[in-house]
Amino acid sequence: MLGILAAFVMRPEAGQTRTLNVFAAASLKESFTELARKYEAAHPGLSIRLSFAGSQALAAQIGHGAPADVFASASAKNLESVSYDKSSYRVFVLNKLEIAVRKGLPGIRTVSDLARVRNLVVADPAVPVGGYTESFLAKAGAAYGSGWEQSVRSHIVSREADVKSVLAKVRLGEADAGIVYASDVRSARGQLGEIGIPGNLNETAKYPVAIPSSAENRNDAKHFIHFILDADAQRVLELNGFVSFSRPVSRLAIQGKNYPLPLSKHYRSALMKATDEKNQTKAYFGVLASALPGVSKAKSATFIGADGYWQTVSVADLVKHRAVLVRSADGNYQLVVPGLKPSTWVNWLRRIEFR
Predict the structure, then answer these.
(1) Which of 129, 150, 221, 326 has the least C-beta neighbours within 10 A?
(2) How much is the pTM?
(3) What keywords sit in the KW lines (predicted)?
């Protein structure tokens, strides 16, 4: 059995000729349904078919020939189990765990109280949220004691195939509590209680997206991935309880050392003109990459973004083209290399490594 594939299909209207098949983790249902409608409205002639299930089930479906143009997974492990276009891979959003509690259940207010829950439902460890749950229980057990962990595990009454099934059992009163994503609690707010998990015990789920090698509509798939990385789509995801991967950070890791931002306080800047991927020439003001610490002794530099995209550029090209690190209005940095293709530019910089 490949598992039951819970699918939501947006049917094409008369005159539409193209179809984009998007496979997405169950936790993305509300967000992707809204985003797909927005994208369809802006692209007449395109119909988006959305299929939602546990990421492991979706990966199995794709592996057995199911038509998928985009695969948005709740974990890298499941996405990387299928053949996909490596250049299309991006991390597009983050999520956290929360404890969903049956509405009206008394006396359960903190993580430590979870040991007193009679009926606890979780996801199967093969499902991304189930794997994150196992890590959380291990960390919480170290914090609260082995007795706490043993008590919690002894009250697990079922392990579900996806996170929505965990949430449904709590919402319907078939379980006292369940461990789900924060985004799922947001979607059911008012129908159940919630307990936040402290950061030192929580897990960060990174959601990657890519184009499967078997995709038939690669052009629309590429543009749809760009769309969910845009600020407007990220806001939709945040409103649905996710954490935007593009939130600015206060430090940038350069050769393993964290440097405080903004960089312009410490390093030489320049105003450059460059042509972007839309073939528009703009002025870019930023810190010269050639002025960064460590660059003078290196032959190349690898720039890594928050979305997992990376590019290696020779130091000679950084100097020749006067590459700059440009700070956007939201505080994120972008590598811009005038004279080189925009595909060498990297958004949402998080790390720079020299060799």
Answers:
(1) 150
(2) 0.81
(3) Metal-binding, Signal
